[in-house]
Amino acid sequence: MEWSPEQIAAWLRLTYPDRSSWHVCHETIYQAIYHGGHAGLSRQLTKRLRTGRPLRKRRRRANERTPRFIAPAALIDRRPTVVETRTRLGDWEGDLITGRVNQSAIGTLVDRASRYVKLIHLPCGRGAPALRDALTLVVLDLAPELRRTLTWDQGSEMAHHDRIAPLFSDGVFFAYPGRPWERPSNENTNGLLRQYFPKRTDLSIHSAEDLRAVEERLNNRPRKTLGWRTPAQILGAGLRSP
């Protein structure tokens, strides 16, 4: 049923509260799949995990990562505290979703307050100059009051962040390495986008018009976190308010 180990573990606790022997944490399930041997689960079940990985990937520690930027970058700690409250429009989170063997990519922007999505067409590749130029076009299409901050991960595609920062009134900021939860709206939206742009496919086949169609689909979809209003409604209401 494509449930994650975490969902399975939570369901067992809620459905069978009196059967403590069935209360396993999600990590136990992962271990049973990846390292079960004769006493565990079949490794064929790795194909049913959302990542589909036959082996686990070891995450690098933050101190193992080398600096990516020549120009000094501002970390998320220096971002205005109002951004955390999600009470204003114009605070964006950004990232790339990549295609097969990371050869193609689409840029994603999500407004933290409204969850409004903007997609960045990258027909010339995912390098820093290509992202800088394409991101600039997308951002300049926004009203000035919708350009306050941008928070990105520390990918090399943002090497020209100092050229992008003047587009935002409060600047560009970066999450710490290996902490995707510091950009939660963007991570969640990237998951939604995979319905339209699956992993391990060639993303370069999608035109700018294709991206606009997906934007419209997501921005006009009622969201539980918005009280079943749409991102487009939240954004429009914010622009109309004094």
Structure report:
This protein has 242 residues and is of the alpha/beta class. It has 2 domains: 5-48, no CATH class; 76-240, Nucleotidyltransferase, domain 5, CATH 3.30.420. Helix content is 30%, strand content 11%. The protein has 8 helices and 5 strands, in the order αααβββαβαβααα. The protein has helices at residues 5-15, 26-34, 82-85, 128-140, 161-164, 184-193, 208-219, 231-240; strands spanning 91-98, 105-111, 117-120, 149-152, 171-174. The chain has a 5-stranded mixed sheet with strand order 3-2-1-4-5, sandwiched between helices. The longest helix has 13 residues, at 128-140. The chain is globular. The termini are far apart. Residues 62-66 have low confidence and may be disordered.
Layout: helices, strands, pairs:
Elements: H1 5-15, H2 26-34, H3 82-85, E1 91-98, E2 105-111, E3 117-120, H4 128-140, E4 149-152, H5 161-164, E5 171-174, H6 184-193, H7 208-219, H8 231-240
Parallel strand pairs: 1-4, 4-5
Antiparallel strand pairs: 1-2, 2-3
Mean pLDDT: 88
CATH topology annotation of the largest domain = Nucleotidyltransferase, domain 5
How many DSSP helices? 8
The main pleated sheet reads as: 5 strands, mixed
Structure class: alpha/beta
Which regions are unreliable across 5 or more consecutive residues at pLDDT < 50?
62-66
Q: How does CATH name the architecture of the largest domain?
A: 2-Layer Sandwich
The CATH class name of the largest domain reads Alpha Beta
Strand content bin: 5-15%
End-to-end distance: 48 Å
Number of domains: 2
Helix content range = 25-40%
CATH superfamily name of the largest domain? Ribonuclease H-like superfamily/Ribonuclease H
Strand line-up in the sheet with most strands: 3-2-1-4-5
Order of helices and strands: HHHEEEHEHEHHH
Shape: globular
Count of individual beta strands: 5
Radius of gyration (CA) equals 20 Å
